[in-house]
Amino acid sequence: MNSHLFDAAAECLDARDPGHKASLTHNTARRWSNGELDRVAEHPAKPEVEAGIPERPVLVPPRKLHSRKLQTREGHAALIHSICHIEFNAINLAWDAVYRFRDMPTDFYDGWVRVADEEATHFEMLRQHLNSLGFDYGDFDAHNGLWEMAQKTAHDPLVRMALVPRVLEARGLDVTPAIMEKLSAVGDDSAVAILELILRDEVGHVEIGSHWFQYLCRQRGQNPEPTFRELLKQYMKGRLKGPFHKEARLRAGFSEQELAYLEGIG
Description:
This protein has helices spanning 5-14, 18-33, 73-100, 106-132, 145-152, 157-185, 189-219, 224-236, 246-251, 256-262. It is an all-alpha fold.
């Protein structure tokens, strides 16, 4: 059994079976919390890492994804599946941040190990709910956008913190309330309760990204707000599409000026 955090993170990242990845994540998080893992790096991080994924779901371009009309049984399940897939990818994203960026303070690893642990719980809850609808993870196609961004930002923790937690994961803060309303309208109260928990946790996850983005900016003598704008222009072709959940984003570490910029008024 690995006694080094970075090797343990790699093991979690490599795991292909979703259930095994989730249980291994919980065990690794417990061992880190109990002081059973050290930060000795016997091997440097690989420049390119492929996250372990199952054979299914089949990964396709977003435009080819299954219809998510909640009026149909398949559409209802496809929506839950899409969120389940996001949470599965989020496990990999958290472990990749731990594995890859090795010169950060201990609090950095505390935060991202906790994120991995919570994302694994989210995945398990959503998968169980998907099972209750008569489907399983892998029954619908999915896309690989989250991991593709992880690959694009593997060279720099500042860029990673700016664009994965504060852009891609923060999008979940914006869209989750509307999804909850749709699910409530079709009587899926169980899914609404799961998404309430996920939304609460995800505010904390994005806040961790905000904290370390700002930390790295200060360390390098950069102003966070113009740096964030420049990274959006470079990687996201400019401003993001709204609407934005302003209250949640403020709690997650965004400034009023950043939100004004995103909304096109700053």
